[in-house]
Amino acid sequence: DLSADKSALLTLRSAVGGRTFLWNTEQTTPCNWTGVACDATTNRVTALRLPGFALSGNIPEGIFGNLTNLRTLSLRLNSLTGTLPLDLSSCSDLRRLYLQGNRFSGEIPPLLFSLTNLVRVDLGENEFSGEISLGFKNLTRLKSLYLENNKLSGSLLDLDLGLDQFNVSNNSFLNGSIPKSLQKFDSDSFLGTSLCGKPLDVCSDEGTVPSQPISVGNIPGKREKKKLSGGVIAGIVIGCVVGFLLIVLVLMVLFRKKGSERTRDVDFATFKPRDIEVPEEKTAVEANEHSTVEVNSSGTKRLVFFGNATKVFELEDLLRASAEVLGKGTFGTAYKAVLDAATLVAVKRLKDVTMGDREFKEKIEVVGAMDHENLVPLRAYYYSGDEKLLVFDFMPMGSLSALLHERCYVIGNKGAGRTPLNWEVRARIALGAARGLDYLHSQDPLSSHGNVKSSNILLTNSHDARVSDFGLAQLVGSSTTTPNRVTGYRAPEVTDPSRVSQKVDVYSFGVVLLELLTGKAPTNSVMNEEGMDLARWVHSVEREEWRSEVFDSELMSLEPVGSVEGEMVEMLQLGIECTEQHPDKRPVMVEVVRRIQELRQLGSDRVG
Ligand SMILES: Nc1ncnc2c1ncn2[C@@H]1O[C@H](COP(=O)(O)OP(=O)(O)OP(=O)(O)O)[C@@H](O)[C@H]1O
């Protein structure tokens, strides 16, 4: 039971506890401890993840014999030594075992072969020796097997498992030919060994074993394990210390800059470029429906309002308004500007716009013409040689990303803490954002957003979702680096970030759905035991484990058990389909909207 789990964890801590291994043992349940996850129904520990916690020494017997409901065990990147405890064989539910980056030694323990539910096994970067046993054949569900950077020897037997991932590189005493079932993997999986045959070079004499192991040093880019002299080690240590100090210094300077930028209220006028022409005379403005209104008197460049503008003001008013930096994005910096008590706007100061006046105007008018309740309306723009500003409605509740991931998110009063998001709110946000995107996609088969992510889904006071930043990717130069798109939202087929499509949007939206359901940011590193992003991680978890492994524990704790789980399962299924590797397998946005509506309907029917 849970108390046995707790005492097992405490035994583990006292045996291998490292510096940062801090658990608050006063809490009666271990389920909230760092790295520990429990199943809400069985109330047992199902996951233990302590990557890089400076754990050291041998794991004694008598721990895993109690943690019998464990499904995920990650002790990677520690300094654990010795062999694996035999009672690990009691964890017959174990799916994922991540022990890479330790100093475990001895043969790969046969106890592993009794854990027939294992799907991922990573024993890389240890000191395991001996042969790779045929016992792996028992693990019929195994999809990943990582054994690189060990001291394994002998030949590779034809395990003939349906593996998706496999790596035995840098085991210099592995030899013989690569069996057929493993030939589908890249040569990277076998480098630094004495293996031969596809995908490496053909065996010189099929069936015979090359007499000399290939030196790891001959393989470019591969880690070499070679003895170094004292002088070289001293040089490396001094170099590392100096390098580390330099990095700390640079980070301190950067953080100072960033911190002051974010917290200080800035006078909007401070970013006024020298050459913005502010006209002497203000011109009365009227907003026409469906057409842009040039606020233009004497040919001087002015703020240009769109037909949807509810309130019109001058550039001068904007520049005089008190302003605050909201954040820096891909396309420039966003500011909140307070024109008067009733007029709050978000101003985006674009960088890297290289296109001329006319082209910019044409493209921005398309953005300004978009009109849907789930889009953040663009109200006006300013274009001059050096300055490009976009004026949007200010969204008081900030972004979905902040709401989900910023623990001390402030709503109204500072320090109020983050408001937990229940399923009703999350599902409504999903539907609203999907409708906004569907509207964009319905304009033209080629129209797409290009930068869908949770920081671009903003919220009104009543938690209605509005998609922002649409059409901006087309305004800035393709040379612009788009760091946000490489952090888990980018579809696998996208090699050039400026090439966007509706299917790419669907993928990114799918990641947002997974984010809403898991509460995890796509870049969350704790779950990335294999460097998997959020989408790949969710795809790797079997359906029967969604409840204990995937769904946000905050969500589960807010909802009466079972009441909305059906909806959550359907939504997760949709998120998985949207994030299919192959674009053709993903649904189109109109279908996504329909599916969310349906699952909400089904949910309310069930409750009602
Ligand atoms: N209209 C708005 N109302 C309120 N907050 C906004 C508005 N537009 C942007 N923000 C906030 O300002 C910050 C910066 O936004 P910006 O769109 O410039 O960058 P981003 O969303 O982080 O990245 P990207 O430029 O790739 O979209 C974000 O936290 C965003 O939530």
Automatic annotation (TrEMBL):
- Where the record annotates domain Protein kinase, the positions are 320-600
Gene3D superfamilies per record: Phosphorylase Kinase, domain 1, Ribonuclease Inhibitor, Transferase(Phosphotransferase) domain 1
Q: Which GO terms describe its cellular component?
A: membrane
Q: Which keywords has UniProt assigned to this entry?
A: ATP-binding, Leucine-rich repeat, Membrane, Nucleotide-binding, Phosphoprotein, Receptor, Repeat, Signal, Transmembrane, Transmembrane helix
Q: Where in the cell is it found?
A: Membrane
Binding, ATP: 348
Q: Which InterPro entries match?
A: At_inactive_RLKs (IPR050994), Kinase-like_dom_sf (IPR011009), Leu-rich_rpt (IPR001611), LRR_dom_sf (IPR032675), LRR_N_plant-typ (IPR013210), Prot_kinase_dom (IPR000719), Protein_kinase_ATP_BS (IPR017441), Ser-Thr/Tyr_kinase_cat_dom (IPR001245)
Give the domain of life: Eukaryota
Q: Does the keyword Cell membrane apply?
A: no
What GO annotations for molecular function exist for this entry? ATP binding
Transmembrane spans: 232-255
The protein's name: Protein kinase domain-containing protein
